[in-house]
Amino acid sequence: MKLFLPKQKGLGETRVSMVPDGVKKLVELGAEIEIEAGLGESIMQQDDAYTSAGATVSADPNTSLRSADMVLSLLPLEDEAVATLKAGAILVSYLDPFFNLERVQKLADAKISAVCMEMIPRTTIAQKMDALSSQANLAGYVAVVIAVDKLDKILPMMMTPAGTLSPAKVFIIGAGVAGLQAIATAKRLGARVEAFDTRPVVEEQVQSLGARFLKVDLGDTGQTEGGYAKQLTEEQLEKQRQAMAKACAQADIVITTAQLFGRKAPRIITAEMVNGMQPGSVIVDMAVETGGNVEGSVAGEDVVVNGVTIIGATNLAGRVPIHASEMYSSNLANFVEHFWDKDAKRFNLNREDEIIEGALLTFDGDVVSEPIKKRMAQ
After folding, report:
1. Backbone φ and ψ of 81, nearest 5°
2. Residue 76 structural domain
3. Which helix (H) or strand (E) holds 170?
4. 102, burial (CB in 10 Å: exposed 0-12, middle 13-18, buried 19+)
């Protein structure tokens, strides 16, 4: 079975879909791996590292796309590339389906079996394939680092002959994968950390990292079956804002991580709350690419409001591309290996498996994902 790894074409994207170790793992399974020339250049992996792992370098990417049985990518393929794929080919990549329904339909029309990495179920067996979590982990770390870079203070308490410096206060909203990593990173750097999440179940995790959990009685919240936070009512959001305003006013750094998969990010930090913060403090809006948690945040820009810097950095994981690529590569390789038929030496698209059922968007000309079909019908 022929697997093709195209070079990522996204503007400013520094991550790659697979590192040489991932290629070696798949070659050992019996896969025939072909890569586009320069696949790993952005992470300083030259083509010979991939050929040493068992891959061949494509002489012509379009020819390779036409002949590939399976394409493994990080970013979605461009429309021209999708049109080049043969009917029945399997595409595995990020696809952002809820906000790109037209792309999903084009994949269906081309009779491509499209597997969406963002929709890998959050189950125990699928953890090793969960690209959303692996990239969010790194993004949480990066969010703290870029906030510290903008802050005019140090994070740890420091006792010197000239006096004692108090530790900086960091307030993190959302204790999912990104939030927990942000908490851990800020604590390691010596900050005093407070965190909030709508799911009371995460309080113990927050406290285990040494942070204080801000309790707000919102009534019934909980989480979805997939482990994501449920969407709050407007009344709950207002109650949450009021409780968080004080925490923001006392914080040197605020990091917001609240995202709802397939929906616009909830607005959590209002302009009034920003105005109530100390001049010189910093906010990192990790949800800026899906609408933003912070009023006034702008994707790809830093905005200063009354002395408060609102960072709208995008593709945070892409700022540490070597490790981000290693983790995504591992997710992809683990996914392929899990469904690999070692006797037939090919990938088994087992539609009865819960992982495939959750992540498969299109098959044999049809959109087969129930959540996507519902969104298309709206």
Report:
1. -70, -40
2. 2-119+321-368
3. strand 169-173
4. exposed
Whether the pTM exceeds 0.85: the reply is yes
Within a domain: 373 = no
Pair (271, 141) in one structural domain: yes
Q: Are residues 106 and 182 in the same domain?
A: no
From the candidates 127, 223, 231, 250, which is the catalytic residue? Answer: 127
Q: Are residues 149 and 237 in the same domain?
A: yes
Query: Is 329 part of a structural domain of the chain?
Result: yes
375 is catalytic: no
Q: What angle do CA 263, 9, 264 make, to 5 degrees?
A: 10
Q: Is 122 a catalytic residue?
A: yes
Look up 130 and say whether it is catalytic: yes
In the set 130, 197, 252, 285, the catalytic residue is 130
What are the Cα distances from residue 77, in Å, to 8, 12, 129, 266? 9, 16, 20, 29
Q: Indicate which CATH number applies to the domain containing 233.
A: 3.40.50.720
Out of 133, 259, 329, 369, pick the active-site residue.
133
Which residue is catalytic, options 67, 69, 212, 228?
228
Q: Please tell me whether residues 57 and 111 are part of one structural domain.
A: yes
330 annotated active-site: no
pLDDT tens track, the chain, 378 positions: 999 999 998 888 999 999 999 999 999 999 999 999 999 999 999 999 999 999 999 999 999 999 999 999 999 999 999 999 999 999 999 999 999 999 999 999 999 999 999 999 999 999 999 999 999 999 999 999 999 999 999 999 999 999 999 999 999 999 999 999 999 999 999 999 999 998 888 999 999 999 999 988 777 655 555 555 567 777 877 777 788 999 999 999 999 999 888 889 989 999 999 999 999 999 999 999 999 999 999 999 999 999 999 999 999 999 999 999 999 999 999 999 999 999 999 999 999 999 999 999 999 999 999 999 999 998
Among 67, 105, 122, 263, the one annotated catalytic = 122
